[in-house]
From TrEMBL:
Belongs to the ABC transporter superfamily. Pfam families: ABC_tran, DrrA1-3_C. This is ABC transporter ATP-binding protein. Keywords: ATP-binding, Nucleotide-binding, Transport.
Amino acid sequence: MSLVTVTDLTKHFADNTAVNNVSLSIDKGKCIALLGPNGAGKTTTIKMLAGLLKPTFGTIQFEGSEERDYRNLIGYLPQYPAFYRWMTGKEYLVYAAELSGLPDGEAKEKAEELLKMMGIEEAAKRRISTYSGGMKQRLGLAQAMIHDPKLLILDEPVSALDPVGRYEVLEMIRKLKEKTTILFSTHILHDAEEVSDDIYIIRNGEIVLSGTLQELQEEHQQPVIVIETAEKNEEWLGQLETYAFVANVASTRAEIRIEVNDVDEARNQILKDILSFNIKVKTFKVGYTSLEDLFIKKVTE
Ligand SMILES: Nc1ncnc2c1ncn2[C@@H]1O[C@H](COP(=O)(O)OP(=O)(O)OP(=O)(O)O)[C@@H](O)[C@H]1O
């Protein structure tokens, strides 16, 4: 069942269209990734969903209602969260809990529960200024979860982190998936692959592709022949481009990637060419394009 339904969401900044007719559906209990390169419109979309920016037009329905003020039902972690660095982690969470309306005792309990869940209870009494990037983001996640939101919105939660911090925060998001519905943005496909159920790829403010991970993999993967050669043969590369079974050819000095429509025909012809052009082949692999290939194609075409 859809928790949030977004229809034709659009945002203009003067003559710049940051988000253009974005429609998406966030099903209850799912983790949705909004995936796109820099400047694609992720933050603008997220800010509209979080109620921080007014759409130029388009609608956002929360649990079927367009009228409802749902802001107290969402938890939000901005791309650049601002912490009171002089506070301890626990003080900060108690403060956030009280701001969200929890009475004193409950605020402390909730803060302790979340510090534990996020694996930072040992740093609870340390000033935030001493936290690593990954710990700060986990504290940010705890703050966003303090009032048990129905939807957790995270703007690039791992982009600024080193590999360890990234792993820690992705693990936490995986844990939070069991408790609530999540929408997060990222420009890195791997993050989306790690934790999301549904992916929306956004480019120049528009959704260019969407689906479950499995759907995207099954529907869009294409056979590819990858050949490593001792040297590049321009004449043969030119000939390859003329074959009807070839969808795309990309080559570096040592490697040729040939996306094909008919893998048997392609293999037979290419093997013949290798003999007739006397190509010195080091490796010859037949496989499928990856989600990474699809993502790069969609954000660059
Ligand atoms: N307040 C604003 N005024 C004018 N233009 C804006 C404003 N905010 C965003 N934009 C423009 O809207 C477009 C989308 O920006 P947005 O920040 O939503 O992208 P993003 O996908 O979040 O990028 P990043 O990954 O770099 O954060 C960009 O061209 C940006 O310059």
